Amino acid sequence: MVAAGLVPFALGSDTGGSVRQPASFCGVYGLKPTYGAVSRFGLVAYASSLDVIGVTAADAATARAAFETMRGVDQFDQSSVDYPAPAAAAASDRLVVGIPEDVLDGVDPAVRRALQAVRGRLEEAGIRCVPVQLGSLEYVVPAYYVIATAEASANLARYDGVRYGVRDGYASADAEEMTIAARSAGFGAEVKLRILVGTYVLRSGFQEQYYQRAQRIRTLIRRSFEHAFGEVDLLLMPTFPVPPFARGDAGLDAFQQKQGDLFTCTANLTGHPALSVPGIVDGGLPIGVQFMAPYFREDLLFQAAALLAAQTEAPRPPGYLGPHSLLAEDG
Amino acid sequence: MAPAASFAAAYQPHIGLEIHVQLITASKVFCQCRNAFGDRPNENVCPVCLGYPGILPALNSEAVLGAYVLARALGCTLSTRTVFERKNYFYPDLPKNYQISQFGAPVGRDGAFTAEIDGLRAPVGIREVHLEEDAGKMIHAGDISLLDYNRTGTPLVEVVTQPELTSATAAEQFLEEFRRTVRFLGVCDGNMEQGSLRCDANVSVNRAGAGLGNKVEIKNLNSFKFVRNALAFEIGRQTAILEEGGAVRVETRLWNENRDCTEPMRVKESEDDYRYFPEPDLPPFCPDEPFFAAVEERLVELPLARRDRLREQYAVTAQQAAFLTAEPDTAEFFERTVAAGGDASLAARWLGADIRGYLNQRRETLAGSHLTPERLAALLAMLNSGAVSGKIAKQVLAKVIAEDRDPDAVVEEDGLRQVTDAGVLRPILERIVADNPRVAAQIAAGERKPAGFLMGQVMRHTAGRAHPDQVHALIDALYEPAQNGESNDRD
């Protein structure tokens, strides 16, 4: 919608990358704010500790304006927080961007090219890019899926036919049969799979092995990012490990698809803000890259995006219409 | 020794209670709906307590404070970081199909609560105190089921005791003391009929000294009578099974009040698996110093301690002390009456008898009536000084309560002051004698018989205000005309 120029910006829920990955694939900007920066009140919950309201926009300034309007504490969301606007932006030539080269194994060459191109532009703008070590992101996706499905199994339990979900008229069966019928008919195969996984990892006797272990992994990954942000202002990494795939068949099996969320869902797991920006157009397809910043430092993300845009206008793929296309047609 | 007795002595019941306490708060625990009983069904509901998709809970600080106050009063170690968790189970009265409750880090743990059980006092361990949301109510009407969500989200504190109670009557007495305690603390109205206070019990009988036996949970013991009867029945049932060499099945049973027995509800193959995990929508609650100070401020002298103190300080009887501390309002009223100058012994007696009776008759409560401690103190002072008789005092009390007037004003304005003046009483007596020649003749003959009649008549003519001792003296004087005449002459 944004890339087609139908709307100047759009909101979406980003639980594991659902704003940033499409933005990357469409050559636009996708922001996932810090967890707690934007109220979740009104958002139909999937995985409550990972869900964030994000913004997709054709340019970083619009994304920023939308974010600044939405952010802040909400008495109806006790996980929301207020925080002061950051002090005046740091001088650009003082910014240091870290590139976690130790976690790029298996990243598609085209995506590596996008990363290199953006790095080059940053350095031209006088920003220092340095390698950083994040250790391993090997356990990010398993931990993410354990936590997400656990929370989803509870969040989706209300669709039982009593008040929410599918039910034809008055239920004639008893409550248990009604619930079974509502959930069997109302949920698709992938949702059922996730509910089953989430229910399994929360079973008593299995929590230590799955849910609690995932939470410990989450803590360790958060710490390694906090440590990295002690050394650099921003991290630069792929948004998605492979270039955009065709509609329908992604050429990835179910496991590879989940593994593809590695770079995006890391930010959901740690809570850090992240912004996907257009990188290159390769073979006619846009490939974005992602910046991550310390908690509540969305301003640094926008600063980097603005520097890049000033350097070179964001590369647009064929078919990209942009925000002013409708106006242009009218004129 | 009879065989039955030896068997009974060989078995030991172990009873633990799970008590649910609905907190008195203005609003529900996670939303701003009114927390009230008895409103029209589904009147106090909103998207939050109905669990709409997209809603989030927001913790009510008044409810957390209530939970901490109760945990503190029960001697628990208070959590400095208490965590809410989702308890997952499917039930139609639970809109989200998970209950926000606590598991790993409840408000309080490891407390002890002492009740007087059969005259003895021993602390009963409190395993934990946690805060959760109440569920809705299902009403079954013929072949349909209706749902009332007014109760959904009512702040509910669950208190779990150790299995240290050893008889049905012990459990009942414990629960009675517990109920008084939550009422004194002002955290719960203790109304078991309306479900503000609910109780489940875990019962296991085993050979004495052999530890806990197989546990049977008994649900919904919603009156003291049910607690007593259900536990007595269940202890008997389990004992009989063991005596026959059988094994008690682990299960949940319900008390059937119509058949006076417990009946199986469902067999527990294994423990229910509620798949608890921390509620991601609510950050852990970490009380600060001002919060703990507020908890301390809400603590009051508990009823058992107050009972002891009243006996010691005011020399009231054990029975009076028990009555005075049955309700927090009564204890407060009594002490304020004494503070206002009222006689403690009289106040205790009047509160327990005439005042209670009259208020019951009018369906009024002490706190809601026109009687104040100051008014009672004034009335008792008049009674003590002889300004009014006991009988008149009761009339004054009725007028104070019915007409919202001060006792002094009632006595003065309605002319109820006791008449002691012989100058007023003697002419009345003389007229009565004059009007009854037969009595006059009896007196002349020195017969004592008419004395009672004369007393009654004087009282009738003075509307009960005549001072009985003075009337007695005057009647006596009728029998000694000569001496009287002499003394009169000297006047």
Strand content of chain A: 5-15%
* Main β sheet profile of chain A: 8 strands, mixed
Structural class of chain A: alpha+beta
**Measured on Cα atoms, how large is the radius of gyration of chain A?**
21 Å
Question: Can you describe what's shown?
Answer:
- The complex is a heterodimer of chains A (331) and B (491).
- With 331 residues, chain A is an alpha+beta fold.
- Helices cover 39% and strands 14% of the residues of chain A.
- In chain A, strand 4, helix 3 and strand 5 (128-131) form a beta-alpha-beta unit.
- In chain A, helix 3 (109-124) crosses helix 10 (298-311), helix 4 (140-155) packs across helix 7 (211-228) and helix 4 (140-155) packs across helix 9.
- Chain A is globular.
- With 491 residues, chain B is an alpha+beta fold.
- Chain B is built from 17 helices and 14 strands.
- In chain B, the strands form 3 sheets. Chain B has a 9-stranded mixed β-sheet with strand order 2-5-6-9-1-10-11-12-13. Chain B has a 3-stranded antiparallel β-sheet with strand order 4-3-14, with no helix packed on it. A two-stranded antiparallel sheet of chain B has the order 7-8.
- The radius of gyration of chain B is 31 Å and the shape is elongated.
- The A-B interface holds A 40-45, 48-49, 75-79, 150-151, 153-154, 157-158, 160, 162-164, 170, 175-176, 179, 199, 202-204, 207, 211 and B 50-59, 86, 88, 90-92, 95-98, 144-145, 147, 271, 273-277, 280-283.
